[in-house]
Amino acid sequence: MALLRQFIAFGTDNAGIERSLRFVQALVSLLATYRFSQVAALLSLTSTKFPPSTSFLDLRAKINVTRRLLRLFRFLEQFQLGWDLYSSKVLDFETLLDVLGKTCLGLYGMLESVTLLDLLEVDQLEIFGAEQTANLNHQAQVFWLIALCISLFRTGVALLRCLGKQAAAPYGSSNRDSQEKSSSEKNEHQKEDGSASGTPGANQQKGSGDQVAPKGGATISKEAVPSLMLKLVADTMDVLLPATAIGLFEVHPAVIALAMIISTAITANDVWARCGKEMRGR
């Protein structure tokens, strides 16, 4: 029952719907680009005909327009996030990168939104025309690529920092162990000389506190590393989409579809977890 409720929460959430449609769009793209020769041969033995690639391409275009409708005013949120970063924090290099990334995402969404009416292909309601619409969508892909590259750089830096903290934790623990050992030997030597009276309660309390601190830090790093690695994979997969759209390099359409499926599954899992957390918090 809890799983069903979480599925309902995911299916009625705006981000969950958008991720679901993106996953379907990726599957449709795979069907449109990959030759399912064996499946088509089996279907040809019956009265059912396998749809041509053009049908899948038309369906993909319809799903893409639907997703754009769901993201119609999303660019305003990105502009707001960028402005909040610009106005509320010290403008160091990393903050400026975040501001630039949010601004590029906002420009990407804005260009997608202003060309939406042209993509609907309603007679006498076009704004820019087919050629200018294609040009604006090309520029939108450029801004998306810049935002993804910034996200890749920021995620990579954060991942290296977490891995560095994990590598430093055992070294710090060994130093503390050696310090505690030398301190213990010193106390024992003092006890034998009769120059100090033992305070085992204080020593045990101090020792237990030193042991808890590195464990807590290591736990936080271990939890952050898988999340950062998944984000790195998702951004890397997504980079293929705008990079091929603007002609930086050529990749087989089936590879693009598979990359889209992988990145959608990773990002949709975050939305799924958030919906479950919100459901349990009610």
Question: Layout of SSEs?
Answer:
Elements: H1 2-12, H2 14-33, H3 37-44, H4 53-70, H5 74-88, H6 93-114, H7 116-120, H8 129-193, H9 200-245, H10 253-281
Helix pairs in contact: 1-2, 1-10, 2-4, 2-10, 5-6, 6-8, 8-9, 9-10
Model description:
This protein has ten helices and no strands. It has 282 residues and is mainly alpha-helical. It has a domain at 1-70 and 252-282. α1 packs across α10 (253-281) and α6 packs antiparallel against α8 (129-193). The longest helix has 65 residues, at 129-193. The radius of gyration is 28 Å and the shape is globular. The model is unreliable at 188-220 (pLDDT under 50).
Concise account of the structure shown:
It is found in: Peroxisome membrane. With 282 residues, this protein is mainly alpha-helical.
Please give a handful of descriptors for the protein shown.
282 residues, mainly alpha, 85% helix
Radius of gyration based on Cα positions: 28 Å
Helix/strand order, N-terminal first: HHHHHHHHHH
Structural class: mainly alpha
Count of DSSP H/I helices? 10
Rough shape?
globular
> In total, how many beta strands?
0
The main β sheet shows up as:
none
- Low-confidence runs: 188-220
Instruction: Give the proportion of residues in helices.
Output: over 70%
Q: Averaging pLDDT over every residue, what do you get?
A: 80
Distance from first to last alpha carbon:
15 Å
Strand proportion, as a percent range, falls in: under 5%
GO cellular component, one term: peroxisomal membrane
Biased composition (Polar residues): 196-208
Biased composition (Basic and acidic residues): 177-194
Transmembrane segments: 255-273
